[in-house]
Amino acid sequence: MRPSSNRSGARTDDRTLVKSVRVTFGIALSFVVLLLAVTLGASWPANILSSTAGLDGAKGAIQAALPQGWAFFTRSPEDPSLVPYVTGSDGTWNRADTLPQGSVTNLFGLSRNQRAQGTELALIVSRVPKLTACDDYLSECLAMPVAHSYSFANPTSSQFFCGPLRVVLQTPVKWSFRNETPEEVRAEQFVDIDISCGKAP
Question: How far apart are CA 172 and CA 137, in angstroms?
């Protein structure tokens, strides 16, 4: 009977050890998840899902102790962005790029073909000496007549943008004012460009 008792005792010890390891792992995992959630929440600005009222002191302490720098990985949706538009056969303006990233044409974010479009557009616009001011809603700026059009050769190898475009520097209306404005986007500046495409440089 002794060997049987020894085996039974060993199995009990093994089960106890496994249970102890599982509990320790669960506690450690919970701590890591909680730590990430706290630091992520402290790095986010005020938005529609959370308010930072009365928490500035706590946020500052957390950011000082555990700086994450999440802005390195993301871009604020409230920042101004260059958006190209082209006129359709019916005279309406349509976006000339394939953004946003989560659209159906981009397979809800799985496709990466459009990643170079922002760089290509920025290279083209960097050649423009001056943009036309337009501090108004997007539709008003798109309705303005062409005062001057710049002609450039597309300097990139991808050459996604070709022909006449109106590039608008636009900013989305802040979420808190979404119900008080007639449009969701305001335009700051725009420029008309005629882009020629051919042999890649």
Answer: 10
Closest CA to 128 of 150, 145, 147, 96: 150
How many CA atoms lie within 13 Å of 180's alpha carbon, on the beta-carbon side?
5
Overall pTM > 0.70: no
Beta-carbon neighbour count of residue 154 at 10 Å?
A: 19
- Residue 135 is given by DSSP the state E
- The C-alpha atoms of residue 160 and residue 197 are separated, in whole angstroms, by 9
How many angstroms separate the CA atoms of 137 and 133, rounded? 12
Which residues, at least 6 apart from 195, have a Cβ–Cβ distance to it below 8 Å? 124, 151, 152, 153, 154, 161, 162, 163, 164, 165
Decide the pairing of beta strands 185-196 and 93-95: unpaired
Nearest Cα residue to 190 out of 173, 167, 161, 156: 167
For the record, the structure tokens of 75 come out as: 């871009």
Q: What is the pLDDT along the chain (201 residues), one digit of tens a residue?
A: 455 555 565 667 677 888 888 899 999 999 888 877 777 666 666 655 555 555 556 666 666 665 655 555 566 777 888 999 999 888 899 998 886 666 676 666 666 667 778 888 989 999 999 999 998 999 999 999 988 899 989 988 888 899 999 999 999 988 788 788 888 899 999 999 999 998 655
Which residues are CB-neighbours of 155 under 8 A, at least 6 positions away?
Answer: 123, 124, 201
